[in-house]
Amino acid sequence: MIRLKNVSKIYGSGAQAIEALRHIDLEVPQGSIHGVIGLSGAGKSTLIRCVNLLERPTSGSVQVDGQELTRLSGPALNQARHQIGMIFQHFNLLSSRTVYANIALPLELMGMGKAAIQERVKPLLELTGLSDKTGTYPAELSGGQKQRVAIARALASRPKVLLCDEATSALDPQTTGSILELLKDINERLGLTILLITHEMEVVKSICHRVGLISDGMLVEEAEVGEFFTSPRTRLGREFLNDFLELEPPKALVERLEPEPSPRHHPVVRLAFSGDAVASPLISRLTRDCRIEVSILQAKVESIQDRTLGLMIAELIGDQEQTRAALAYLERHDLNVEVLGHVKRDA
Ligand SMILES: Nc1ncnc2c1ncn2[C@@H]1O[C@H](COP(=O)(O)OP(=O)(O)OP(=O)(O)O)[C@@H](O)[C@H]1O
C-alpha cells in the first residue's frame, strides 16, 4: 500500500547539505498501522512528508496504492493526494471556520456540491464524536476535540492512507489515549492504512502493528511491535525500551560493573520473556537445575497489546561454569538475555 524504495532526501547543497533521509526502504501493507519512532532530528517528519510529497525526495521511489507519486506533479499529484489524509501535531485548523466548515473544506476544494458535502460530513461528525460541535469554532475546542476535527477533515476525501505527524504529542496522556483509540477504531472499521511518526513508545505500544526505528536518516530496525518490545536488536532500540519501561540497574551497581567475566565476578543480566515463559517458574527451575543463586534487583510485568512481557534485572551467583550454564539455560528457554556486566561480590 505504501512502498518507499531507496528514498533519500538532502536539504540544501554543498557544505550546507543535510542528509535527512538515507536509502529508506519501507513497506506498509494495506490496513496495517505502522509506526516510525526516533529521536529529535532523526528524520521522522521528513520521512512522513515524503510519502505525500510535501517534501520531494532527492532520489528513490514513493508508491501509494500502486501509484508512483514521484512522477506526478500539478493536478495529477493533487488528485493522487486525495488518497492520502494527514494530521499534524498542532491540528492546523482554520480558526475562522466552524467544525463543520473545517471538515467540509477539502470537499469544497474538490468542487463537491452542498448536499453531497453534507452527506459526507455528517457520518464523519458521528464517527469522531463531534455531532454536538457542528457550529463550534476551533478556539472553543479542547486539544483532543481539535484533533478529532482534523481527523474527520483528513477522512473527508475517503483516503486509503492516513499519515499522522506526531498527532498526540501536544495532548495530555488521557486525551492521547482517546485519540489513539479513535485511530484504532478507524483503522478497523474503514480498513485504513496508517503511517505514524512519534517519539513516544506508548503510542507504538498502544496501536501499531509494526514499528521502524529511525536514526540519523536511516531505518536501523524494523519489527512486529511485540517483538520490538521483547527483543530490540539495536542499542538505540534497547535505550528506547529501557527508558519506556524505566528498568535500569541501580546506579551504584552500574558503577561497579566490569565488562569482562572473571572467577570473582558474577554476571548481571537483563531478562525479557514473553508468552508461556511468563507463567512458568523459570527462576526457581534455574536455581535448581544450574545450582546457582539468583538475586533479583528489579522486575516487572507489562502488557504489550495481546502479549505479556516479563522483565527482570538479576545477578546470577555461582562459579563461572555454573553461571555460563545458567545463561545457556535461559537462552534455551527463549528468554532474551542481555549481560549488562559483571560485578564483584563482597561476601
Ligand atoms: N526544510 C529544511 N531545511 C533544511 N534542513 C531541514 C529541513 N527540515 C528538516 N531539516 C533537517 O533534517 C534533519 C531531519 O529533520 P526532521 O524534522 O525530519 O527530524 P525529526 O525526527 O522529525 O525531528 P523532530 O522530532 O525534532 O521534529 C534535521 O537535521 C533537520 O535539521
UniProtKB/TrEMBL annotation:
Give the top-rank taxon of the lineage listed in the UniProt record for this protein. Bacteria
Q: Which GO terms describe its cellular component?
A: plasma membrane
The protein's name is: Cell division ATP-binding protein FtsE
Q: Which UniProt keywords apply?
A: Amino-acid transport, ATP-binding, Cell membrane, Membrane, Nucleotide-binding, Translocase, Transport
Gene Ontology MF annotations: ATP binding; ATP hydrolysis activity
Specify where it is mainly localized. membrane
- Enumerate the Pfam families for this protein: ABC_tran, NIL
| GO BP: any one term | amino acid transport
What sections of the sequence does the record tag as coiled-coil? none
Q: Which family does it belong to?
A: Belongs to the ABC transporter superfamily.
Q: Localized where?
A: Cell inner membrane
Domain ABC transporter residue range list: 2-241
Q: How does it sit in the membrane?
A: Peripheral membrane protein
Per its database record, what is this protein's job? Part of the ABC transporter FtsEX involved in cellular division. Important for assembly or stability of the septal ring.
Q: Which InterPro entries does the record cross-reference, listed alphabetically?
A: AAA+_ATPase, ABC_transporter-like_ATP-bd, ABC_transporter-like_CS, ACT-like_dom_sf, MetN_ABC, MetN_ABC_transporter-like, NIL_domain, P-loop_NTPase
